[in-house]
Protein 1
Amino acid sequence: MKSLAYVAFVGILLAAIPFTGSAQCKNFAKKVCKLELAPYIHDGNYNAAILTEGEDAELFKTFYAGQEYRISICGSESLPPIEFQVLDVDRKLLYTNASRNYATSWDFKVESTQQLIVLVKVKSSENGSDDLASGCVAIMFGLKTD
Amino acid sequence: MEIGSVKRMIRIYSVVIVTVVAIMSCASDKGSDERVRVDADEVISDSNAVYGVQTAKQIFYSLPSPLETALILKRSGAVYNEEILNPVENLSRYNTNKSMALNLGIYSTDLSYASMFDQTQASIKYMSASKKVAEGLGILNAIDNSVIQRLEENVNNREVIMDIISETFLNTNSILEENDRVAVGAIILVGGWIEGLYIATSLIDDVHKADNELIERIIDQKLSLGTVINLLEQHKSNPDVKDVLTDIYALDKIYKNVQISVSEVESVLREGESVTTLRSKNVVSVSPDVFNDLKTKIKEIRTKYTM
């Protein structure tokens, strides 16, 4: 009976892993990333996922003429630096934080409404370890209000 | 049964149960991922998976939130007209998941629009309506009573009110994601986006006399429409999403007659400035007939969602 109870306990723990990761990511986005948008107001959207080093993600969004935006990318402390690039629909590079010491935010405005792609890459760590780090990465947008 | 056999059976059951639970755990995780992203490289070899040589690309489609929609409306010269908003008295009509999700988006846009024009009483009214619909959807903690109280305490501070709205929307989205209900989140966003289009088109009586900037922003929604379709298509196995997608395809058919040509984009950062400008020139055109068709279709869809 003890063995069965142990198995059930392990099973519950395993089943809870995805939800725990998701909840941690939510708290991380709310408590850490959102603060980096100030003084811009967060648009309210939630774009976050658990990424492993070497993985990348893309986000498609339309940005509107006349509106000033701040993109903020933040990752858990366990992750290596995160590179983010902004590309146009033809995938022409418009910005990369790699040339700015992996700055975590970028302020911009568009003269005409544009659909842009935000490409986020979790760099591979340089220590050659077989243990790949995973953590929450959030892409958040701030809006200038005045 | 001998003790040895019993122990062997326990070991076998242990392996089976742990394996099943682990598979369920992975399946649940994958289901969650699929709601927010497309795995472009699903087939990877085991060795690649272990060593991370091949990475899974994740794709997010981000729609303008109700707050961004309201901000764009105001910047484009829109005026405030409470009569065009969805009356809170309609709340009792919304009893299905689909109608509640759509109208949570609609009320969220109405709330953001009212707050952008410092309409405090309307803001509180629409926040209360949003709270009730969110509760109906089982999102119990996204908007609590303290939110309404904070709104009342900050009636003269638009920045704080916008921050409160942003926080409630983030709570709603993240709770839905946490509970593997991202399809519902997509419907909420589409409801809010349709309401923004409805408000904008309702404010234009005569396309010849209307403010150009507001018309331009309505035309610009052709660019967001592609994102709306991609987002919904990620969840089209959900019957409610499939229904909404049918309406969006009908809207897309009309938007196909709206022309937008986009010039090359150039990134410019002037010396001494911290904000980069992405320079480009869009050429847009829409005939009055097509504009009226758009306005009619948007009204038809919005009426279907609110009635």
Protein 2
Amino acid sequence: MHVWIIARREMQLGFRNPWSYSFLLLFSVFSLAMLLIQSNNSMGLQGYTHATGMMINLTLYLLPMMTLLLGSFSLTGEKEDGSWHLLSTYSVSTSAYLIGKYLGLTAVLLAIVATGFGLFGVVGVLLGQSVTLTGLLTFLLFSVAVLVLYLGLALVVGAIAQNRWQALTYGVGIWFITVLAWPTLLIAVLNLLPYPAIKPTLGLLTLLNPAELVRVVTVIKLGGGAVFGPEYYQWIDWIHGKWGTVSALVFALLWLNGCVGAASWIWERGRGRG
Amino acid sequence: MSALRRSVRVIFCSVAVVVSAICSSAYASTSISELQVELDRAEAGELVKLPPGTYEGTLHIRKPIQVEGDETRIISRRDAVNEEPLLLVETNGAAVRGLQLEGNQAGLVVHGDNNRIQDVSISTGKTAIKLEKSNRNLVQRVRINGRTADLEQRGNGIEVRNSQDNLIEESTLDNLQDGVYLDNSARTFVRTNHISNSRYAVHMMFSNSSEVAGNILEHNVTGAMVMEDSGSQIAGNSITKQAEHVQSQGILLYHVQGAKVVRNTVDGNRIGLYVDSSTGNYVEGNQIMHNFLGLQMKDSTGNEFLANTWAGNVIQAQAADSHENLMKGNYWEDHQGLDLNGDGHSEISYQASPFFLSLTEAVPAYQLFFQTPGLAILQDLFTSGTDNWLRDESPLMSPASRGVREKTSSRGLLIGISLLLLGAGIMPFGRRIRRRVQR
């Protein structure tokens, strides 16, 4: 019950938050920009092509950052303006509070993403671009997956950070490591390991990076799995197999459970001290 | 009593007639040995028409006669020896038309020159047609279907060994190991065939000066596999959708010299064109599009790439340890060119970084970083010493011919769902704005 109240409150705050408006505008402009880039070439969005690869990468530059900032600011904001202290006088458990926050924020972010892709589809059709329904839904699903997983991380950041400045620093740090510097860092570190350990370590680390994990799964789902070469054919079979989608959902649940668990633990420690 | 006996006899006889009629429709009244006698009795050049029906066993053509089937099926005997084919041609100048061969042994084996095999359909788990030390034969309008699902257990479609000047055309080959396999067979012409769902559609080994032209090769592991070859030509083929296997590619040139790869459409493959350890090849006017990787080149020198269109490939080209290749006037879709003198060519050259290829050659596991967002930055860190990079000095500003745009299906549904998304997304924001305005 508390979860739902918190979630509703979060939605009310979220849809009023100037940050959400800025991101709504940014994501919409970004969607239109992707359409314009598309118009330079003759390619559609069927399967794994240059156009789809580019869409995936551009989305990965923007969406994780947006999610991390919006999510963590929502938590630190309440620490800063004291509304958490007010709330904690009521019988609200930390986990109910965080789950409520999570659900509310998911709704806000979903609205932003839906607006962006809705605009992409409508303007795309009006301009006579070769946008397809499957293409649009693939990117929507891809974005939702990125958003859901990064929002878990955003809760942890929000729990750790004392104020928005700290949250901004941590958020940008996570974005930088998981998106921009990922291959550089990994190649540097993995080259220190003995050769047979490289592939399993890389696989494990990829599981821990939502951007990379969702990207690899999306490429495989788009039929481009073969591009990863003979080393990964079992991954392709697994993801295309009957347990592929189920295991992805189970993984997402485990990830969220871990993130919310970690965030509540950190939050509780803060509560004790405060 | 006698009346009863007579009527029983009538019923018995009529049942026997019906049963024999049914049997004769499935199995011919003449046996295969009688057909064989007929073939052996015919004079050279004579036309032998085989009656409709199903025959068990092997037919053997030893004279230059014309054999024509009319719904004539030859199937494996139950005790068939595997090495024995269903039809064996051991003569020069014979013609075989209109036969169906089915079974778990080899289909048709030819030892001889100037034979014509036309309109034959073969369904077998073994090699369907084999030409061995046979020259100037024609294989035309043949339909071959491999029976086994397991790739390793299948036989080849048309296998040509130690033979020359044979022509294979207008045939449909499906579900085989190699569709057409040429081994040490110079000047073999493979034209206008449709080869699909096989391991290699066309596999050439030591088959110099052969030609693969106008074929449709799709959904195989590899389209055209050219190895240890010189002077062959791959022209005007449609080579598409070799993408599902982790070792798939459209065209592979391995240890090939002086081949011409011209005017092909290479679309939707894992690697469009893969050139490995090959020299002096000529690649012109191909449409290499929508592949995961357009061109991959390793250890290759002195090749020419002219006026090809590279578009829609996730990565256009990568090359390592390849020097002195001439690249001119290609269209590269991702190139931001600048045409100062209006000749349609950019004055800014196009170049492809060898970084990722070198990286994954050292550690194949890093292939997982294919097109990861951070890779571009890493690649830019390694741009020093670009002398040995793959470079097009004068790339085209626009493609020689535009690729076909994908048709957008169900526009109405697309715009409906887009509007729905837009509405659902913007509504909660809109409500706040309205309230604010009302206050």
